[in-house]
Amino acid sequence: MSARATPDTWRLLGVTAHDLYIPILTFVFGEAQLEGRCAVVSTKRLGEGFYGLPEDAPLFRKRLLKESVHELGHTLTLSHCEDYQCVMAPSHGVEWIDLKTHRFCGECRTRVPSRAKISAGKR
Q1: 71 catalytic, yes or no?
Q2: Sheet with 38-42, side-by-side order of all strands
Q3: What is the pLDDT of residues 28-73, one digit of tens each?
Q4: What does each C-alpha distance from 57 to 25, 30, 36, 47, 64 come to in angstroms?
Q5: Banded pLDDT at 118 (limits 50, 70, 90)
Q6: Can you state the percent helix, strand and coil of the chain, rounding each to 5?
C-alpha cells in the first residue's frame, strides 16, 4: 500500500475481505502504521454471517466505520484508549466494537496533531 502513496497522499486506507492476524493474535480487525500514512481493515469478521447469524447491513457498516476510524487514528499517533466508548478503545471481539462510538473521546481528540486536524478539514 505504501508504494501507492504519493507526496499528496494524506492517508491511505485499504479494506480487504481477507482475515488478518499478527504473530501474537489469531486475528485482528485492522492494522496501521503508527504515525504512518497507511492502514488496513478486514471485513472478514465484521458481519453477523461470520458468526452464523443473519446478516445486518447497518450493523456491518457501523463496525466498518468504527474500525476504519480506529486504524486511521493510529496513523495520527493515537494509541489504544481506556475509555470503552472511544473509537480508539481496543477491539478484541465484535462485541467490543459495538460498545464504542465512531468518535474520539475528548482526551484522544486533543492528542491528534494540529497539522492532521487542518489537513483533515481541507479534504
Answers
A1: yes
A2: 12-16, 38-42, 30-32
A3: 999 998 888 999 999 999 999 999 999 999 999 999 999 999 999 9
A4: 27, 19, 31, 8, 10
A5: very low
A6: 40, 15, 45
pTM: 0.87
CA distance 87 to 41: 14
Q: Could you tell me whether strands 38-42 and 12-16 are parallel, antiparallel, or unpaired per DSSP bridges?
A: parallel
- Beta partners for residue 31, in sequence order: 40
Q: Which of 48, 71, 95, 107 is catalytic?
A: 71
- From the DSSP assignment, how many helices (H) and strands (E) are in the chain? 4, 5
Calculate Rg over the CA atoms of the chain: 14
Confidence check: pLDDT of 4 > 80? yes
pLDDT at 78 over 60: yes
